[in-house]
Amino acid sequence: MLTPDMLPEIRRTASVTAALLLLIAGARRAQTAGPSVNWTALPPLPGGGVAAACAGVSNGALIVAGGSDFPAAPPWDGGAKRWHDAIRVLEHPNASWQTPDRRLPFGVASGASVTHRDSVICLGGANRDGHLRDVIGLRWTGSAIELDSLPPLPRASAYLAAAVLEDTVYVAGGLERPEATEALRTFWALDLARPGESQAWEELEPWPGSERHLAVSGVQDGAFYLFGGIRLRAAGGGGVARVEPYLQDGYRFTPGAGGGDWVRTRDLPRAAAAAPSPALAPGQSHLVITGGLDGSRIDVNPARHPGFVREVLVYHTITDTWLRQPDGSPTPSAIVAPVVAWGGGWVIVGGEIRPAVRTPSMALGALETGEVAFGVANWSVVVAYLAALLLMSLYFSRREQTTHDFFLAGRRIPWWAAGLSIFGTQLSALTFMAAPAVAYSSDWIRMSGGWTLILVAGLVVVFFLPFFRRLEVSTAYEYLERRFSLAVRLFASTMFVLFQLGRIGIVLFLPAIALAAVTGLDVVACIVVMGFICTAYTVVGGMEAVIWTDVMQVVVLLASAVWCLGVILADAGGPAGLLAVAVPQDKLRMFDWRWDPTAMVAWVMLVGSMFTSLVPYTTDQSVIQRYMTTRDEAAAARSVWTNTIISIPAGLLFFALGTALYVFYQSHPELLRAGRHDEILPRFMVQQLPAGLAGLGIAGIFAASMSSLDSSMNSVAASLVNDVYRRLRPAVTDAACLRLAKGITVAMGAIGVGTAILLASRADMRFAADYFNGLMGLLGGGLAGVFLLAVFTRRTSAHGVLVGAVIGAAAPIVVRQTTDLQFFLYAPIGVLACVLVGYLTSFILPGAARDLTNLT
């Protein structure tokens, strides 16, 4: 209970809370009521405007090459088209255009252009000699232009659509000849990752629709998109006419074994032929098409043409929905213009603003997501929640007098709280946000392996837990010393610490992105706030504070998930309404019965999930430490089963919530915002939950992030103090060890914050949970193999297990670099490699005879 002598600590906590509130207020970004684009004027193109130029980015500079115009008069007045060969360079938005001496080998326009790494690639096009096959690479050195020749297109093509997906250029459609009466229905790919001499175009299966030119391409979320375009037909007198109405169909191509697969998307709400291409791609699931030809002004006198459509079409790749929005650009709506991602936004380069009229005007557009303001009520709840965490640590600080208290909570933790804490540690903000995001964006396949946790829990309770509890070890790795040697203990402890060093930055950084998106905080501010509070309550309150804060965040997160699901079910008309949308679209698919080891098929998920779960429950000090905080072995076993009983229904809840989010946003696409997949749940909370309750849910995500960090900090301190410092200096006092443990905790907090800030400027991950599971498989498989050898074999020697551990750690890395195996298989590969190599090596390198009573 609180006592008068704790009042100074409470006042200090209040001061810290007030300081955090000021930090939050100062770090907030301005919020807008809806999506918008901020436009910044760029210097106009020198020498007048051009259309259909080749454009891209090299060495950070915007490159514009070629293009066409009508310098003397429009074609209906006898004017002739001119094709340019000049190259222009703009090094930054406030610079002046440069015109290098180097030019294109010929004038060209009406091709396609893409940026790959540091090169601008110009594909095909047209000039006075006809349509072209040439593919030219441009590179800006900072002072000059360099030209490269790439393999020519399989056929000449102009008015084609192209985009880069990873290292492959995809080209679709176009016209082979100026007089052609039918467009191309061709789809080509060029792998730029291959050495230059081995590069060659590959002809792939085209989209399941009609031929076309002047289509719009796009790349998003690992897929190539093709929208709209125009068909041609022969006209009287040997002429050519456009087929009306213009095309409004769309297609998605996903690369894969055998080339890839095409799927038809929802049709565009209007035609958008010749719109700037590739489509803008904000976030991870939006494509934006500006303007284009909708066929409504075909019969207008070109000399009096009012201009092209000023409307933006926004496509959401997950819900397969379109929105129509006004175009707020300060420049006229242009067609046949390349789109270039540059300077944190997009530039539409020149283009045609009326028939035969080019524009030199350009602007840099940056998309604003238009978040709902977080609000005072929500911030008040967040601050109160974080303050409660600090007060809890003060309450428990009176008991943290020894390392036994600091690391094991004096074994005072009830079994149900330990079980909830295990669940909370494994849950983390990654899972709470990523599991719904996965179901929202795909299906339930990743849930298919969750059932294996029952088997893992049985193995832990029957075979592993007795050794940890009956031997009264201080860490999991102390058991390895008794079973093998000090070297094995130090190796395992080092592997654990290295894994945690890789983990702490991830579990801080990834949730911080989503929290920043919905609260208005800067990402770095989110990281610093979480890191500071977590370090403070872990140092002050030790393991007891860690566990009870875990319990609180589990209750808050599960309640938030249930509430969110209830809100969506009410909107959808109940479970029947939700299923009516989800089932026909295969959103509940849990098993894929193919045998493909590169995909998330059923056997891969079952085997991979079992071994991936085996790693933390048998080797991770942050989990095993919780087994040791209960009164006895029976209570520890109940804590393991408590975690299992909660984990599977919670997994189903999170995946059901993800599917519900899909149904909700398919019905309300106007509420979608550009961003990461993992942001979808916190965005929904802020948009749809009442003020205050949304703040509680977001506070729970903050706390969930910290629960993973606090576990890492305390367990790393336990491992370094007990496995290294105390083991190598047996005469050291417990008080000195406690001081060192708190110092290590502070250092780990600082490392976590620093790593997360570094990741904030570099990381790019589609799904946070996938990245984390891959990391666990790479680093944890070998360590799990060590514990399996320790528990289930008697012949394995210390030398053999060390060799096996090294091979078990290296094998998944080699597999990752040399094969396309699914990352869920990394853990079983590491475990099996360690077990087989370690056991067989022990026959070659047998160790000294040891008394293994009660050790295996």
Structure description:
With 856 residues, the chain is an alpha+beta fold. Strand 17 (216-220) and strand 18 (223-229) form a beta hairpin. Helix 7 (486-519) runs parallel beside helix 13, helix 10 crosses helix 11 and helix 10 packs across helix 16. The longest helix has 50 residues, at 523-572. The model is unreliable at 13-35 and 765-770 (pLDDT under 50).
SSE topology:
Layout: H1 7-27, E1 36-42, E2 54-58, E3 61-65, E4 68-69, E5 82-83, E6 87-90, E7 112-116, E8 119-123, E9 126-127, E10 130-131, E11 135-140, E12 145-150, E13 161-165, E14 168-172, E15 187-191, E16 201-204, E17 216-220, E18 223-229, E19 232-235, E20 239-242, E21 247-256, E22 259-265, E23 286-290, E24 311-316, E25 321-326, E26 339-342, E27 345-348, E28 352-354, E29 357-358, E30 362-368, H2 376-397, H3 403-408, H4 415-441, H5 453-470, H6 476-483, H7 486-519, H8 523-572, H9 575-582, H10 602-619, H11 621-627, H12 633-667, H13 680-688, H14 693-728, H15 734-760, H16 768-792, H17 798-818, H18 826-844
Antiparallel strand pairs: 1-30, 2-3, 3-6, 4-5, 7-8, 8-11, 9-10, 11-12, 13-14, 14-15, 15-16, 17-18, 18-21, 19-20, 21-22, 23-24, 24-25, 26-27, 27-30, 28-29
Helix pairs in contact: 1-2, 2-8, 2-14, 4-8, 4-11, 4-12, 4-14, 5-10, 5-12, 6-7, 7-8, 7-13, 7-14, 7-15, 7-16, 8-12, 8-14, 8-15, 10-11, 10-16, 10-18, 11-14, 13-14, 14-15, 16-17, 16-18, 17-18
